[in-house]
């Protein structure tokens, strides 16, 4: 990590990393669950959403990001209610108040058709009509890279022209050379996608790798 104020590899300055650390050390609170659009909170603050295949490590990453043990609950039941979960981040002098949005996981091997349909409608409606949504962070398992099940949401994001960034999870589970490989492959894919941020961030909720940068990526997204 650079100590002289020059940008880090990921393009984040030490100042932004520190501002992001302080922001997430402040209050973060569950606001509400929205099973359909009429339950969405008023669009009065910026939002950054997290999406990913079920079991990709989304709950663990949200907990690591916010330094809370049980902010986001693990939920691996295929028939489970599909909903968007909203969390208020208080902000401070360095960052305005904003919201984190935990989007419903996708890609259950045995998901009933109506669950898939509900997911598709909810996510599509949210993505297309939400002006305050600044960016979606799409989580990809470091062991697998982008899978076919991820392509649907990437396509939806490109079509809705919602800015998104690919984040690799569980980086501690792969060797350094394999991580470099999957990062390069994922970046190559991202560069071909119109709404994707060209840079990939590797994270681990276990070891803490990339968590300060992920916090900075959230702050950067809300501008
Ligand atoms: P979700 O379904 O996307 O919310 O995924 P979870 O956060 O529940 O994680 C799924 C499984 O992966 C759990 O067994 C976690 O303990 C494990 N896991 C999540 N993140 C990491 C990580 O960074 N490293 C390792 N080694 N395991 C992880």
List keywords for this structure.
binds guanosine-5'-diphosphate; 35% helix; 6 helices; 7-stranded mixed beta sheet; disordered N terminus; Rossmann fold
Shape summary: globular
Mean pLDDT: 90
Question: What CATH architecture label applies?
Answer: 3-Layer(aba) Sandwich
Question: How far do the termini sit from each other?
Answer: 23 Å
Strand order of the largest sheet: 1-3-4-2-5-6-7
Structural class based on helices, strands and sheet pairing:
alpha/beta
Q: How is the biggest beta sheet arranged?
A: 7 strands, mixed
Helix content: 25-40%
Number of helices, counting only DSSP H or I runs of 4 residues or more: 6
Unreliable runs, pLDDT <50, ≥5 residues?
1-8
CATH topology tier name: Rossmann fold
CATH homology group: P-loop containing nucleotide triphosphate hydrolases
H/E element order: HEEHEEHEHEHEH
The total strand number stands at: 7
Estimate what percentage of residues fall within beta strands: 15-25%
How would you explain this protein's 3D organization?
This protein has helices at residues 14-25, 58-66, 113-129, 148-160, 176-191, 211-222; strands at residues 28-34, 47-52, 84-89, 98-102, 133-141, 164-169, 201-202. Helices cover 35% and strands 18% of the residues. Helix 5 (176-191) links the parallel strand 6 (164-169) and strand 7. It starts with 13 loop residues before the first helix and ends with a helix. The protein contains 6 helices and 7 strands, in the order αββαββαβαβαβα. By secondary structure, it is of the alpha/beta class. The protein has one domain (14-222): Rossmann fold (3-Layer(aba) Sandwich). Helix 1 (14-25) crosses helix 6. Bound molecules: guanosine-5'-diphosphate (GDP). Residues 52, 54-60, 74, 76, 105, 169-170, 172-173, 204-206 line the site of guanosine-5'-diphosphate.
């Amino acid at each position: 990590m650079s100590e002289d104020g020059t940008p880090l590899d990921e393009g984040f300055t030490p100042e932004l990393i520190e501002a992001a650390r302080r922001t997430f050390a402040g209050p973060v609170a569950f606001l509400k669950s929205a099973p359909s659009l009429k339950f969405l909170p008023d669009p009065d603050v910026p939002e950054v959403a997290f999406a990913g295949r079920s079991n990709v490590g989304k709950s663990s990453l949200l907990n690591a990001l916010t330094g809370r043990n049980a902010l986001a609950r693990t939920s691996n039941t295929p028939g489970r209610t599909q909903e968007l979960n909203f969390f208020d981040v208080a902000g401070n002098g360095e960052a305005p108040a904003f919201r984190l949005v935990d989007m419903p996981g996708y890609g259950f091997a045995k998901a009933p058709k109506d669950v898939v349909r509900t997911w598709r409608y909810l996510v599509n409606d949210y993505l297309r009509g939400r002006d305050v949504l600044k960016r979606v962070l799409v989580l990809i398992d470091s062991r697998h890279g982008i899978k076919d099940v991820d392509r649907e949401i990437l396509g939806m994001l490109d079509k809705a022209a919602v800015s998104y960034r690919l984040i690799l999870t569980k980086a501690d589970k792969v060797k350094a050379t394999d991580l470099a490989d999957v990062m390069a492959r994922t970046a190559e894919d991202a560069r071909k996608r119109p709404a994707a941020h060209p840079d990939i961030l590797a994270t681990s909720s276990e070891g803490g790798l990339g968590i300060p940068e992920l916090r900075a990526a959230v702050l950067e997204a809300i501008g």
